[in-house]
Structures are given as structure tokens and as C-alpha cells.
Amino acid sequence: MSKSAKLKAFDGATKTKLDILEKYLEAWVAIFYRKPARPKANIIDAYCGSGQDDLGVRGSALRILDVLISSEEFKKRSRLSNLTVYLNDQSKSKIKALEKLISTNKIYDSLNIKISCKDGDSFLTETLQTRQKDFNLVFIDPYGIGGVSLLDFLSKLHYTDFLIFITSGYIKRFKDTPEFKNKLSGYDLDNLSVTDKYDVHNTLCELLREKVSHTETRLYPFTLVKSHGPKNVYGLIFGTHNIRGVDKFLEVAWTIDPDSGSANRDIDARKQQTNLFDTTQGETKTDRFHKDLKQFIINSKQVNNKQIYEFTLKKGFRPTHANQFIKSLIKNKEIKSSHPRALRLNYEDIYNLKKEPIIFKVVQT
Ligand SMILES: C[S@@+](CC[C@H](N)C(=O)[O-])C[C@H]1O[C@@H](n2cnc3c(N)ncnc32)[C@H](O)[C@@H]1O
Prior knowledge:
Number of strands: 10
Order of helices and strands: HEHHEHEHEHEHHHHEEHHHEHHEHE
Largest sheet: 7 strands, mixed
Distance between the termini: 74 Å
Structural class: alpha/beta
Bound molecules: S-adenosylmethionine
Strand content: 15-25%
Strand order of the largest sheet: 3-2-1-4-5-7-6
Helix content: 40-55%
Number of domains: 2
């Protein structure tokens, strides 16, 4: 294989990006195979690269295939017949290298894999156009900002979850150039100019949320900062119509970043270091969430477990973050619950029609 057919060695931020894809895919496959009426499913890696870096660290394409062959369902059936993996990259040499890697590993023979060499955005729209009712997971990992222009299209697909890699720091830097203006027309990017460097990906996610607010798409950011060299800020945007997808993505995000569930480095601490006027020094993101949750309950006077669950996910937190806090509010007699023991702040209990909602009321003093 020629040297140029490979990527350079992946850095830490890139490995985190690939870990997120891999872990979310594991959860996605498990949910899909638990569905009673299983539709067709597709995993589409539109900018898949050559399969591995110079050191043999697996890239997105091989990680996808490996997750599938390691899944419980594959082990049971040794075939995932209604699932197809689409791997695409515009570079002929990368696709050649990838085909070689896949064909020399016989274990992949039992997967339905379709490999192509086309422009990623056109390939994606063509492929999804006829698969809108299928259950899809899409990974968009271009070098530039291409993925953003696909958001409008993706946000209309009810059963499609997606992870888009975006070079957010570059958008902040080059947003006034004709090329970026052209690609990002329809977005009001002025807010990015006044945004803290480490918040740029979060701010961009807010702009994207506004853009798709007429749909049921929920978007979540994960910021990636390189550990060496210039501290450019990039990130992933996860999108789904499905609240369970949000729950699973946040589980992955908080496993990778136990401090804030949203970055590969402690960007909260970096922001506080650079902001002399910050009056919230020492307050963690979780402390702020607890304050917001308490205010939400006080304002509502009465809420049920589903409302708390949805509020928690909307704020980018996991049900476990709400759980202990709600228990402490009950213990301190600030709220009372309709159930003596259970809180039922989890997807399975909330969407199980046999289980009654739990009501939490503010205690009047
Ligand atoms: C960041 S790399 C993707 C790496 C890959 N996800 C991995 O894990 O190895 C971006 C890829 O996009 C490909 N590419 C660049 N322009 C493209 C286009 N217009 N359409 C499809 N692929 C393109 C490049 O060849 C490169 O492999």
C-alpha cells in the first residue's frame, strides 16, 4: 500500500471522536435488535478513510465492522441480514486500501458491506433518499465544514441518528470569507465572534438547534480540543429524533467526560481561568444543573418523573444526575413524592404503560 493511501497517526482528540462513534454504535445496535418488528437498517460512513492510521489504529470503517461482529446479535445469528454498512470516501487510494483490509479479514464476509468512491454529501443524500423509513445511523467526518449543509436534510428523517464532525474553531475564524459565507448561508454567525474560544462548538450547536427548531431533531455537542499544537476547537454534533437516542448518547458522553459530559478536556476550568469577572468560580456544571432543576420544579409547583427526565436530558445531563438530587429534596422536605420509594427516572419505567407516573409536589411552607 502506498504511504499516501493512509492517514497520519490519529491524535488523542481523533481517537475520542472514534470512541464516541464506537460506543454509540454499540448502544444503537443493541436497541435496534431488541425492536420486535425490525425494519431495515443502514450504517453509513460517508467519509470513511482507509480503515486505519499509519500505526494501525482502527478508523471509523473498521470500528463499525468490529462493533457489528462483536455484537450479541451477530454472535447469536452469525449474520445481520437486514443491516447494511455503506462505506464511502472520495479518495480512490483510500478506498483501495480499505477494500484490501476488509477482503483479507474473512470475519467480515458475513456482513453486508457496500463500498463506494463518491463525493460524500451527494452519496449520503442519494443513499438516504430511498431509505428514509429505514433505521439509519450516519457518520459524517469530512476535513472541512461540509457536514453542516446536510443538517437541513438529515433533520427531516425520523429514524436517522447522525454524528457530524465540525471544525467549529475554523468557522469562527473564517466565517467572513466568501467560501464560508457561501457554505453557511442562512446561519447568523455573529454570535461566534463574541464567544469564548472553548465555547465555540457549544455556541455553534445552539445556532444549529435554532435552524432545525421546526423539526423534532434534538442536537447535542461534544467539544474536541487537541492536546498538542495549536489549541484548535472542533467537535461532534449528535442528532436524533428519538429521546432514547439522546439518553444513550449522553451515557456515552458522560462516560468519556465524567466532569461535564461534553468535552475531551476540562473546558469549564479553562473558561474560568480566562474570565476575571466570573462570579461562579468553583461551581461545577452539575451544581448549575441542580439549581436549574430545582427552579424548574418550584416554578411548575408539580411535576412528574417524565417531565424531570425530559428536562434532565434537554440540559445535557443523565437521569443519574437528577436522581440523587431529587432524593435530597425529598429528604429535606422541599418536595414530596406520590411514591414512597421509587423515582422511576429512567426510559424503561417512564415509557412502560403499565407503570404509573410519579408525581412530585413542592411543599408549601
Ligand atoms: C477526517 S478524514 C476521515 C477519517 C475516517 N473517518 C477515519 O476514521 O479514518 C476525512 C476523509 O474525507 C475524505 N474526503 C475528502 N473530501 C471528500 C469528499 N468530497 N467526499 C468524500 N470523501 C472526501 C478524505 O479522503 C478523508 O479520508
